[in-house]
Design goal:
mainly alpha; Tetracycline Repressor, domain 2; 73% helix
Length: 212
Amino acid sequence: MQWLQVCRDCNNFWVTQGGLRERKKAERREALGHAARTLVAQESLDGVTVEAICARVGVSPRTFFNYYETKEDAVLGLGVDSAPPEDSEARRAFAAGGPTGDLLTDAATVLAESFEGWLPPGEMECLVGLLSREPRLLARHVGWMERGRESMQRLVVEREQVLPTGTHPVVTVSLVGVLIRISGELCRESGSGSPTQFLPEAVRQVRAAARA
């Protein structure tokens, strides 16, 4: 029995260590993104270098590129591993008609996965301001949103084959876009939290508008 306890202890150790590593990676990714947004807000996108961002956090440029491909992505919070895989559990469940069978609620679940780890609480206001004044950031952000829209439309088409609603995929994807817009705006207005926590309220407001 002793060897069994040793195995369990080893397993717990590696699970704990893995969790610590992931938490440290997330903290460093957030620190780099925060530094990028702060510096660009103080100066301009052209006036900020990857080296300056790294100096602010105390890491090397080599480390920076483990987290972000470009300084623009750092400002936007688009890490190299931030996008959920196309076959993630939440996406598979949605395409299969789940997890609840309610379209808006299930779409919010997929969005919550996409928002996970995107921006630290309270930084939406800063990002919105930067998007309004930096055309390259806006173009990159729009491209990211468009890829997300295309991915969501593929999921909606799959789901419609399993759980038909008779609703055109374009309509459904447009509603998902509304959820994103509302949750982001509520997050910005609150000055705290992340868009994820405002998704239930966004769903409620879309339902209320549909009944009006």
